[in-house]
Amino acid sequence: MTTTKAPTNSDDVALPTAQRVAQTQSAWKVEAQALSKLATAFGPLTRPKIYQNLTKLPAILKKVEAKIRSLPVADRGVAVLKEIRDELDERKRHMQERLAKDLAAACKAHDLELRVLSRDEPVEVRIPPFAVQIDRTKGHAELRFARQPIATCEADAAAIMNAHGHALAAMRKGFRAEPFFDACLRAWRAACGAGCAGNGERVEILDFLPHLALQLQPSAFRVEPSERNYRGYSRARFAFDVLSLRSAGMLRREGWRMNLGVATGTTATKKNRTIFFEDEKGDGEFKLTVFFTRAETS
């Protein structure tokens, strides 16, 4: 007897397969949404700057953990947070035990002098021409010149040396002694013409710097004096340029001498009006005014 096979309905086969794929797709969508929320919560931890302050970092980690706790993929985020906390503990231990030795070795390797100015927190050292304040509690270091902050980095020997190199290159960039002297002379004359010197010849640094900043603008600013073309000029950079001018023996030029008037008494305490002009070793004093006098070129 011949048996006839019943025809197969393709829907009977396709329906379970489609359902399985739909279920898988739905699970993926749920996971994708959770991962997206996880990624958003971790956004602040992608910014390098937050790792420079170890006192604030634990609070940020705790805040991120609270945001991801209810997510179905929370375990992935918790694992990453644990890695960060372990690294944080290791950094703290390393800073207490090794930073001083590592920094001394790094300075020696770069043929730079290292002088300890203060062992109290924050520790202060001198790596000419900058002072470096190292706060091992917060885990960051600050490079200073003219007692003004010019760069920050992690409290790590390699990071400090890298920041030192970049800061020195930035301070030296574009400096030429003769054009700088001439720019200062023009700025002083402009300030005097604006009445900043009163009946005398001394112009307060507070009034002088804006005129100098204009003299030092690139040609693009002169063509189109817009914010986009403006180049900032800091108090620390002015002090560094004066140090460079002195090192080049260019405080006198073509019958003029550039002078800085010392801040005395209560004036010296008004930091917004004065600048601490220092040499590479950090020795110096607060100055209040700028003025030019006639002098024979030596």
Q: Please identify the oligomeric state.
A: single chain
Q: What integer is the average pLDDT?
A: 91
Considering DSSP H and I runs of 4 or more, what fraction of the residues is helical?
40-55%
Adjacency order of strands in the biggest sheet: 1-2-3-4-5
Question: Sheet with the most strands?
Answer: 5 strands, antiparallel
Structural class, by secondary structure, is alpha+beta
- The number of distinct helices, counting runs of at least 4 residues, comes to 9
Give a count of the beta strands, DSSP E runs of length 2 or more.
Answer: 10
Strand content: 15-25%
Determine Rg (CA atoms, Å). Answer: 31 Å
Overall outline: elongated
Give, in order, the helices and strands: HHHHEEEEEHHEHHHEEEE
Span between termini: 128 Å
In summary, what is this structure?
With 298 residues, this protein is of the alpha+beta class.
Structural description of this entry:
This protein has 298 residues and is of the alpha+beta class. Helix content is 47%, strand content 18%. It has 9 helices and 10 strands. It has helices spanning 10-41, 57-68, 74-97, 99-109, 157-172, 177-193, 205-215, 219-223, 235-247, and strands spanning 115-118, 123-127, 130-135, 140-145, 148-154, 203-204, 252-253, 256-262, 275-278, 284-294. A 5-stranded antiparallel beta sheet has the order 1-2-3-4-5. Strands 6, 7, 8, 9 and 10 form a 5-stranded antiparallel beta sheet that branches. A hairpin with a 2-residue loop joins strand 4 and strand 5. Helix 6 (177-193) crosses helix 7. The radius of gyration is 31 Å and the shape is elongated. The N and C termini lie far apart (128 Å). 23% of the residues are buried. The model has no long low-confidence stretch (mean pLDDT 91).
